[in-house]
Amino acid sequence: MHTPQQAREQYQQHFGEGARIFFSPGRINLLGEHVDYNGGFVLPAAINKGIWFAIAANHTNSANFVAADIDESFSVELDAIKKLDGWKNYVLGVLHILQQKKYVIGGFNCLFGGNVPQGAGLSSSAALEAGLVYALDKLFNLGLNTQQMALIAQEAEHSFPGTKCGIMDMFASLHGKEGHCMLLDCNSLHYEYLPIVETEYELVLINSKVHHSLNDGQYNKRRQEAMEGLSFFQTLNKNVTSFRAVNPDVVNQFRENLSPEVYHRCLYITQEIERTQKAAEYLKSNNLIEFGKLMYQTHKGLSELYEVSCGELDYLVTEAKLQYDVIGSRMMGGGFGGCTINLIAKNNRDNVVSSIVSSYQRVYDIQPEVYLVETSNGTHEM
Ligand code: GLA
Q1: Which residue has the higher pLDDT, 197 or 67?
Q2: CATH classification of the domain holding 85
């Protein structure tokens, strides 16, 4: 689906007139990866790819969903919400958490679809969850603010889909601002918008087309290893409430007390928390050359210490690094596939991208997709 009109028309075919239309964007992240659930800072931005919802109350006790892009539908009685499978769990998770928190909603019809590629690390699932919470809030006057919505969407993802994700994706989807990224402190949820200034460089995403899925266990395993590390530092000092109170020197000092895996995870987390703060300063002073260097460092950490990259993503970053006109590149999002984010000189962008793409194709026999980044506002009614 590519336009809100398509959402409206397809809704009419299924349910008739009267739908309200909402848009919920996917996100990119400039830096600060796998630190949202570790008390760090992140630098996400909402993008112009996302999900449109056509939705209206139906004055019954059932919720009827149509996933227009894959031509699937299902209905559920509101007093019989339970876990099913696949995409259904994202929307059911939202209903489950709203009910658990005693928010009263009535029956509704909802058709959704979009243009944010799935499994590409652009947060299609968070866009779905955040968008549904937002739309239901408007439909049934739940009185939620966008921070509460983000927390509900996050809990929804933890519930039926079962990925113990951080807050970044849903927060970015709900709070995006065109032309800006945000520096979000994932401990306090304070954020500030930083303008993405027009320069001679631009952000380009290259989709490895290796399908990433966060609910195959590896993501949750990283979170568990990180928690194991944090618990150790808490035994040293009970005032440690998050990795913000630890730093790479401390991690190195206690290396022998940690398993090699947990040591590597903790080292990456504490380095990335420091890196993101530096990166935000470089962005503010428009120093993209130094910012780009940090992107490469983050990739190295994600690949070697946090171990969430894969051969294909490493290859894309290595190829990018060989290009003089690429000043930064790294895997983006949860990892195990999905996109790299690249900072490329505009005047040579096409040559650079086609060189990376064709060498990737030669080696992996996969045709990657390329997206130019355009930022957008957060979830809103159209
Ligand atoms: C996924 C999760 C986020 C975040 C990123 C990695 O997108 O949903 O919470 O942890 O991975 O930065």
Answers
A1: 67
A2: 3.30.230.10
Structure tokens that stand for 13 in this block: 């075919």
From ligand 1's centre to the CA of 94, what distance in Å? 18
The pLDDT of residue 215 is above 70: no
Q: Copy the structure tokens of residue 84.
A: 């099913």
Has residue 237 been placed in a domain?
no
Secondary element (H or E) of residue 32: none
From 31, 34, 336, give the residue whose CB has the most ligand 1 atoms within 8 Å, as the site to mutate. Answer: 34
d(CA 209, CA 154): 26
- What's the Cα-to-Cα distance from 319 to each of 29, 101, 312, 358, rounded to whole Å? 21, 48, 11, 10
Report yes or no on 10 lying in a domain: yes
Kindly give the distance from the C-alpha atom of residue 311 to the centroid of ligand 1, in angstroms, as a whole number.
20
Number of domains comprising the chain: 1
Enter the tokens of residue 194. Answer: 């930083």
Any ligand 1 atom below 6 A from CB of 39: no
Beta strands at 191-195 and 339-345: parallel, antiparallel or unpaired: unpaired
Per-residue pLDDT tens digits for 288-340: 999 999 999 999 999 999 999 999 999 999 999 999 999 999 999 999 999 99
Q: Count other Cβ atoms within 10 Å, centred on residue 193.
A: 14
Mean pLDDT of 228-250: 97
For residue 245, tell me if it sits in a domain. no
- At residue 345, the pLDDT reads 98
Tell me the residue range of the domain where 40 lies: 4-194
Amino acid at 342: N
Task: With a cut of 70, say whether residue 13 has pLDDT above it.
Answer: yes
Please report which confidence band the pLDDT of residue 118 belongs to, taking 50, 70 and 90 as the band edges: confident
Under the banding of pLDDT at 50, 70 and 90, the label for residue 212 is confident
- Domain assignment of residue 321, yes or no: no
User: How much of the chain exceeds pLDDT 90, in percent?
Assistant: 97
Any residues with CB less than 8 A from the CB of 313 and at least 6 apart, and which?
208, 210, 303, 331, 335, 337, 338, 340
109 CA from centroid of ligand 1 (Å): 30
CB 244 within 8 A of CB 40: yes
